[in-house]
């Protein structure tokens, strides 16, 4: 009878190795990341695989863009979109852009419209030109180039409000047609509603709620719209508010005119 061979004595594993093996989860494969990836974030092009399911493909490198003075930026999409927010609010996000001379009643209309919509259960937000110069645009003057930047910033903010499903009411002189058209271009699908306060200069100057016309007439303010700086009225605005039989309409009547437009064009329902 053949004798059995005795296998050589194997070295004993250290207690640390035994403990690690004892607690290792079966069926789990974790590929280590390169040191550079571990330090710098990201997955370094490597994948992690758990269990016996199919392995996920290696992620492609995201495409970054250079826009203006911003470099290496990436647009991130969110699974909740504008239509979801509009369904939640029961309305369509849009921008009601009120333009006209100083004293034409832009802020008055904005507040009246916001109040009427609020009473009807609709969410609004007013972007008032003077209010925004207390914060967002406090670094801008009334020179032509700064006025253009003022309108550009407000247009971008208004676009965000509309994307959130809110009825955004922007109230600014916005004297230059090209700047208003640039804001319109930010909002496709007719979501930019231009409201022109078409009141004569003499009416606006007679009101002069802030006393600015008087200062402009005496030369204490330069570049004042309607006096020594032009105002370019809209050529194809959606709504024109003007005097009726020589009388200025009441704030409620002006708000109703805009409300009718919003209702007829489906903005007050999702």
From TrEMBL:
GO cellular component term, pick one: cytoplasm
GO molecular function, one term: adenylylsulfate kinase activity
Catalytic reactions on record: adenosine 5'-phosphosulfate + ATP = 3'-phosphoadenylyl sulfate + ADP + H(+)
Span of domain APS kinase: 92-242
Record has Transport as a keyword: no
Biased composition (Basic and acidic residues): 46-61
Annotated CDD domains: APSK
Protein EC: 2.7.1.25
Pfam families linked to this entry: APS_kinase
Annotated keywords: Amino-acid biosynthesis, ATP-binding, Cysteine biosynthesis, Kinase, Nucleotide-binding, Transferase
Biochemical pathway: Sulfur metabolism; hydrogen sulfide biosynthesis; sulfite from sulfate: step 2/3
UniProt signal peptide: none
InterPro entries, A to Z: APS, APS_kinase_dom, P-loop_NTPase
GO biological process terms on file: cysteine biosynthetic process
Ranges for region Disordered: 35-61
Entry similarity comment: Belongs to the APS kinase family.
Function: Catalyzes the synthesis of activated sulfate.
Name of protein: Adenylyl-sulfate kinase
């Amino acid at each position: 009878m053949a004798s059995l061979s005795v296998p050589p004595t194997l070295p004993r594993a250290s207690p640390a190795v035994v403990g690690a093996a004892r607690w290792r989860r079966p069926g789990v494969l974790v590929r280590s990341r390169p040191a550079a990836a571990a330090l710098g974030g990201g997955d370094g092009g490597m994948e992690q695989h758990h269990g016996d399911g199919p392995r996920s493909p290696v992620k492609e490198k995201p495409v970054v863009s250079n826009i203006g003075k911003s470099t290496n930026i990436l647009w991130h999409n969110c699974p909740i979109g504008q239509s979801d927010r509009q369904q939640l609010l029961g309305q369509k996000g849009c921008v009601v852009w009120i333009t006209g001379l100083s004293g034409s009643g832009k802020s008055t209309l904005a507040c009246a419209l916001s109040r009427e919509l609020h009473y009807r259960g609709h969410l609004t937000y007013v972007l008032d030109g003077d209010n925004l110069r207390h914060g967002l645009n406090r670094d801008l003057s009334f020179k032509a180039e700064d006025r253009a930047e003022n309108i550009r910033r407000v247009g971008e903010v208004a676009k965000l409000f509309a994307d959130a499903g809110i009825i955004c009411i922007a109230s600014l002189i916005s004297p230059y047609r090209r700047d208003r058209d640039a804001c319109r271009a930010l909002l496709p699908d007719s979501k930019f509603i231009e409201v022109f306060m078409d009141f004569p200069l003499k009416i606006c100057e007679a009101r002069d709620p802030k006393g600015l016309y008087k200062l402009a007439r005496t030369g204490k303010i330069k570049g004042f719209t309607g006096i020594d700086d032009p105002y370019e009225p809209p050529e194809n605005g959606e709504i024109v508010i003007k005097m009726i039989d020589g009388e200025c309409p009441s704030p409620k009547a002006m708000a109703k005119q805009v409300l009718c437009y919003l209702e007829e064009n489906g903005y007050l329902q999702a």
